[in-house]
Design brief:
This is Transporter. This protein is α+β, with helices and mostly antiparallel strands and 746 residues long. The chain has 29 helices and twelve strands.
Length: 746
């Protein structure tokens, strides 16, 4: 007894020390951010994403509507200030803009202003109209710097195109569909986006909003941002981890106690699972700096797989066919089981989703740890293990059923194949690769996001990235691209940086146009009215470097960055159809249409095709393995059973869900790995009571664990759990048919 306890203590002490060392070395963080799971775009676009959009991950947004919106806005703004959450919308004032752009005024001509220069009478009418607008902030801020009003027109036109919001008494305001909103935009410090802090901060914000709703009648407050998705997903993942893991463990303990009727058997089964969990955690902590909580939800499945080793090991040891250790057949079957399941999960290691790679690493390492515990430690407890008479009686009844079905294997398999073929003809399966399958956020939060995208003018826009060798080449490329889009739709809208920073070539053309109009007398009215002569147009041109050292710098860098080897910019476009935009983008090098959801869905589609190929390859490898280990005839029979199981599982899931996803195929891959285990154990140990009992326990535990996952609110987890549960149910009843020559109980 002392030796056994010493071995157990030594085993877990070693695992815990390894885990502590791994955790100390890598210092991993935990995340519930769904966006962190998404695969990266190709290198150029991924870099542009990091440069321009990384800050959006920290952004939160609030909108206020109703009769009490101003009071609620002020109260909430004070609460944010008290909690060190600062607003981030700091657009330069008109005076600041006038100060920045006035040295280059005649090189910066808006399209509206250039049109007025075509005729002297047209310009005179325009000029007088602008001067007669009382309180025009653009004229009053620029007239002393530019009597021609070109600078006023440049700032006014660009603000109209770039700015959806106005400032009213210090409050950011937007009118949309007849409703006036007060808006707060803020960025959070990265340390506030951890799992626990996200939950706490989001809870505090929502609590404060609820207080405002009670304080001010007729108030509508909307909130959005990654913070709230992270908090909601983290709470859901924690809840599902504790619920699914807890219920699974209780159910498994009950099963083990019913079969072995001793406390030590429950402890041994629990120790096997604990070894798997610690072993998986060691590998995952060593290989990944950031661990997603959704990984841990999927990793609960390891409980259902790892305990299979304990079931097969303990039932074999309890029979005491060998005085020390396992029978030869069980040793062989345990090793084959480890190899096949490990190969199945290896397919996840190259997945485009970090989540799947993490699950693959966790399960593979966990299974190796559980196998080592089963092989090295469990035999020490052989003398204490007994099988309950009631469990053996149940297994003997099952054997009678299996023997009867086995005698009818040909009619059963032929009938099932015909039925499945008919079902596929009646209702063919379809696939859905939508990235939304990864999202577990509530409908309320998604509606908030949509509303705020509408307020920001980003709901129906398309984003384009541009790359060039220099800033001048980039600006010219952008201007030429916009010129072609204008030919398609003169009324389309965009927020390109070339509004504010025209290319040097365009600035030179503007200067020449202004000089020509001046020489023709078109601008004489400006001198007559103001009594000031127009200054020479031979002024320096505006450059990227100049603008980057002005008050305009934050806005410039949010849309254009010049690096040592390339220059990058992005712009949003609306009013052009997707097909037209794609056609124009494809004509140019260094221009890319950015559609993250579509790109990710395409990657998921590619990986789904890869998984379909993996399923076929797994079937072929299984046939080779069975042919080598058994015979070709047995291999054909077992592969036929595998095919029936996978096809029936896919059809049932498609009928329940309406379509299949990548995660159904991942489930199918796991089903194949587990099914091979059952087929191997049946072929080696036949329809013996201990074998049927172990496989029944294994199937029951797996169906229970994966059945728990099918209750998840996350579509991806639901699909995975449903697939495995249906597949295990099918393989449990069909795998006994693989025993070519049934062997009755001796």
């Amino acid at each position: 007894m002392t030796k056994r306890i010493t071995v157990i203590v030594g085993w877990f002490s070693s695992l815990i020390l390894l885990f502590a060392a791994a955790f100390w070395l890598s210092k991993p963080t935990f995340s519930a951010d769904m966006f962190s799971l998404l695969p990266k775009s190709h290198s150029q676009i991924a870099h542009a994403e990091d440069v321009f959009f990384q800050q959006n991950a920290n952004r939160i947004m609030f909108s206020f509507a109703g009769n009490n919106k101003n009071k609620a806005f002020d109260d909430f703004q004070k609460w944010l200030d008290d909690n060190a959450i600062k607003s981030t919308f700091n657009f330069p004032s008109v005076n600041d803009l006038a100060q920045t752009f006035s040295p280059f005024k005649h090189a910066l001509l808006s399209d509206t202003y250039k049109q007025t220069l075509s005729k002297k009478t047209t310009f005179e009418h325009y000029y007088l109209e602008q001067l007669n607008q009382l309180g025009n902030p653009f004229v009053s801020a620029t007239l002393s710097k530019d009597t021609s009003l070109s600078l006023a027109a440049f700032i006014e036109d660009n603000l109209k195109q770039s700015q959806l919001f106005t400032l009213e008494q210090g409050r950011l305001t937007r009118r949309l569909k007849g409703v006036e909103y007060r808006v707060i935009l803020a960025n959070l410090a990265p340390e506030n986006l951890g799992v626990n802090k996200s939950i706490d901060l989001a809870g505090a914000i929502i609590k404060q909003i609820n207080i405002l709703n009670k304080t001010y009648p007729d108030l509508r407050v909307t909130y959005s941002g990654v913070l709230f998705h992270t908090a909601e997903n983290a709470k859901q993942a924690k809840y599902e981890m504790s619920l699914f893991g807890g219920i699974s463990l209780l159910a498994l303990i009950a099963m083990v106690f019913w079969v072995f009727r001793r406390l030590n058997s429950i402890l041994l089964a629990s120790f096997t699972v604990l070894s798997a969990l610690i072993g998986g955690a060691i590998a995952m902590v060593l290989l990944f700096n950031t661990i997603h909580l959704l990984t841990l939800v999927f990793a609960v499945t390891l409980i259902g797989i790892a305990i299979d080793y304990a079931f097969h090991g303990m039932t074999d040891l309890a029979k005491k066919e060998h005085e020390k250790g396992y029978s030869k057949g069980t040793q062989s079957a345990l090793l084959l089981s480890l190899i096949t399941t490990t190969l199945g999960y290896c397919c996840l290691l190259g997945a485009p989703l970090t989540l799947l790679s993490q699950v693959g690493v966790f399960v593979i390492a966990g299974l190796v740890s559980a196998w080592l515990f089963t092989v090295l430690v469990l035999p020490l407890w052989q003398s204490t293990l007994r099988l309950s008479p009631s469990s053996l009686l149940v297994s003997q009844k099952l054997i009678k059923v299996f023997l009867y079905c086995n005698s009818l294997k040909k009619p059963i398999l032929i009938t099932l194949l015909v039925l499945i073929s008919a079902l596929f003809l009646i209702k063919p399966i379809s696939f859905n690769d939508d990235v939304k399958l990864l999202n577990a956020s509530s409908e309320h939060l998604m509606l908030n996001e949509k509303k705020h995208l509408l307020l920001l003018g980003q709901w129906d826009t398309q984003i384009v990235f541009m790359f060039a060798d220099s800033d001048e080449a980039l600006l010219q490329k952008q201007e030429q691209f916009l010129k072609r889009l204008t030919q398609l739709n003169p009324n389309f809208k965009h927020n390109s940086i070339s509004h504010w920073l025209p290319s040097l070539q365009k600035q030179s053309d503007n200067q020449a146009l202004f000089e020509q109009a001046k020489n023709k007398g078109t601008l004489d009215i400006a001198e007559r009215v103001t009594g000031q002569a127009l200054v020479s147009t031979k002024a320096p041109l505006l450059t990227y470097e100049t603008l980057a050292t002005s008050t305009f710098k934050p806005l410039l860098l949010s849309q254009m960055v010049v690096e040592s080897e390339q220059s990058i910019t992005w712009m949003s476009i609306s009013g052009i159809s997707s097909d037209q935009l794609i056609n124009e983008v494809e004509k140019n090098n260094g221009i890319y249409l950015y559609n993250k959801p579509k790109q990710i869905s395409a990657l998921l589609s590619d990986y789904r095709e890869y998984l379909l190929l993996s399923l076929v390859l797994a079937g072929f490898i299984s046939w080779l393995l069975f042919s080598w280990r058994f015979t070709i005839k047995i291999a054909l029979l077992q592969v036929t059973i595998l095919s029936v199981v996978v096809l029936s599982m896919l059809w049932v899931c498609n009928a329940i869900q309406g379509s299949l996803s990548l995660f159904n195929l991942l489930g199918a891959l796991l089903v194949i790995a587990l099914a091979i285990d059952y087929l191997v154990f049946y072929q080696i140990n036949k329809l013996e009571p201990k074998n049927v009992l172990a496989i029944s326990l294994s199937a029951a535990s797996s169906m229970w664990v994966f059945g728990m996952l099918s209750a998840s609110d996350t579509p991806a987890i639901f699909s995975f759990g449903l697939s495995v549960m249906v597949g295990i149910l099918a393989i449990y009843f069909l795998s006994p048919l693989s025993v070519l020559k049934p062997q009755k109980e001796q």
